[in-house]
Amino acid sequence: MTSTFMLLNLVIATAICLRLILFRREGGTHRPLAGLLAYVLTVASGAFALAILLLFLLPAFTQAAIDLLLASLGYAQTLLNLVLCVAIFAMRGNVVELFRRSDDITDNPITRWLRKEKWL
Q: Would you call 61 exposed, middle or buried from its count of C-beta atoms within 10 A (0-12, 13-18, 19+)?
């Protein structure tokens, strides 16, 4: 059962990482904070996927390292990874769109913060 969650998390985290890496702005404006958020999500999901992959490929890990990783892989973590993956794919990798309000009358503070183009 744990192995199933590990493989599922590996696939989901890899999908998140690759989708964010392959995002294209297509002439859009570069937004530093949105880029930073995308970078952090890419690195975090890639590191998570790499850690799981290494557990499968290098069985010489210490039991403490294996237990620590397995403790973070549960139903809740798998569900969070799945929801984040679906949201990122639905927005075609655009992390700013994750925070846009549906009525679009006024942007919420997070969207305004991520859309800021210049800081100085």
A: middle
